[in-house]
Design brief:
- By secondary structure, this protein is an alpha/beta fold.
- Helix content is about 30%, strand content about 25%.
- The chain is built from 13 helices and 24 strands.
- β11 and β12 form a beta hairpin.
- α7 runs parallel beside α9 and α9 runs parallel beside α11.
- It is globular, with a radius of gyration of 22 Å.
């Protein structure tokens, strides 16, 4: 992936047209890693093939002996993990945040896994101690080396009990994938079952793992050392869906957003309704136009970001943007990642005196004038918020490190063009 990319964006471009929500970033990259524990090829349909995070993971898989075949036209990825095994690589410089999910397939075949340290967005403290706990509870020895993390379990993972001290999506995913390789029953307590984790569970079941979920946090996994292949559909991306919906609302454009996973977004959509926004929709698509605003303006609101089924933190920047276009003062709280604020300073360059922030809380002052600015991306979703602000501003704006947005939105430039919008990336 190219780094240090800059976008020149002319403001005032109003979106018109259709945009289809791609397969979910936070589901597809997990399914790609989970496919490595199968004993036969796996085909993932509706896969966001241009996703940079996925490409980095595919690179590691291929360097470790696995085979990955991408069909960009059909949006499918086929993984053959037959020769996926631990190999001492010349470099472990892979900017993959979920490297820990690559471990189970290596342990299954090699009894040892050497993986890059987790990389990705710096949106607050995100240690990997809970992943180390997962491996150790399943009988492995973990050692932190200068260039990589080494996990050793010569006889493979063993059944055990994992009790997370806090709810964790990544830890839950790691535990599910690792436990599915074990001939025996593993108990996972205080699991975090998000829609993407539910999708992962469905996928692991197609491989042959028996997984029972009690309530929303207690999971029993009866795995197997022999797991079949699968053909599986990646769920649509709920974060991308809310991105396009909010953009349509605040831009005054006319957008049809296709393949919206409404069943995973019930509460985020309720908050839009409370802000005076009525959406025109059927089972899979939603039409956004100025008529969606009941009183002609977004109404001020207060909301808190946290865990599913509420508004997750990855959606926070888009509700912040929405608040900047409300007819009054709005407040957005974040109890899950209270330090997710770095993008606010950059966003405020477009909206002078339009927002203030402190740990865990953002206040927006609506009807703020939006002016062209020069800003730098700080994280994936924050970067997309900057791109949206630049498109709404008067004049030409510059966004540095825009690859962060490109990293998380499949075919972003093409989708913008389909809406009649052009940005110049170099």
């Amino acid at each position: 992936m190219k780094t240090n990319l800059t976008a020149k964006i002319i403001g005032g471009q109003v979106p018109n047209g259709k945009v289809r929500v791609s397969g979910a970033k936070n589901a597809s990259t997990r399914l790609l890693a989970a496919a490595l524990i199968a004993d036969e090829p796996v085909t993932l349909m509706n896969f966001p093939t241009e996703l940079v995070d996925a490409r980095y993971k595919m690179d590691f898989i291929e360097k470790s002996g696995g085979t990955v075949v991408i069909d960009e036209e059909k949006q499918t990825v086929t993984v053959d993990p037959a020769n996926y095994s631990d190999r001492l690589l010349s470099s472990y410089d892979f900017p993959i945040r979920t490297t820990y999910l690559l471990v189970a397939g290596l342990i299954k075949r090699s009894g040892i896994a050497r993986i890059p340290y987790p990389g990705g967005c710096k949106i607050g403290d995100r240690g990997y101690d809970l992943h180390m706990m997962v491996w150790e509870k399943l009988g492995a020895i973990v050692e932190e080396k200068p260039d990589y993390i080494e996990i050793r379990a010569p006889k493979g993972f063993q059944a055990g009990e994992i009790n997370f001290p806090i709810s964790t999506i990544g830890g839950t995913e790691n535990a599910l994938i690792s436990a599915s390789t074990v001939d025996g029953e593993t108990i996972i307590k205080n699991a975090y079952i998000s829609p993407e984790v539910e999708s992962l569970i469905e996928f692991l079941r197609t491989l042959g793992a028996k997984i029972d979920v009690v309530g929303n946090s207690y999971v029993k996994v009866l795995g197997s050392t022999n797991l079949r292949g699968s053909i599986f559909n990646v769920m649509p991306d709920r974060i991308e869906a809310i991105t396009w919906i909010v953009f349509g609302i605040i831009s005054g454009g006319n957008i049809t957003v296709e393949d919206v996973p409404f069943d995973t977004m019930e509460i985020p959509l309720i908050h839009l309704r409370h802000a005076g926004i009525e959406l025109y929709r059927n089972d899979k698509n939603v039409i956004i136009s100025p008529e969606c605003l009941v009183n002609g303006m977004v109404q001020p609101f207060e909301l808190a970001c946290g865990t599913h089924p509420g508004i997750i933190s990855d959606m926070q920047p888009f509700y912040t943007l929405l608040g900047l276009y409300a007819d009054g003062t709005s407040r957005i709280f974040d109890y899950r990642y209270p330090a997710r604020l770095k993008y606010c300073e950059e966003l405020s360059k477009f909206y002078q005196n339009g927002l203030k922030w402190e740990t865990g809380a953002i206040t927006t002052f609506g009807n703020s004038e939006v002016l062209a600015a020069e800003a730098t991306s700080t994280d994936l979703r924050g970067s997309m918020a900057l791109v949206m602000a630049a498109l709404l501003a008067k004049g030409e704006s510059t966004i540095h490190n825009v690859e962060m947005a490109l990293r998380g939105y499949n075919n972003l430039e093409l989708k913008l063009k389909q809406l009649g919008i052009n940005i110049d990336v170099y």
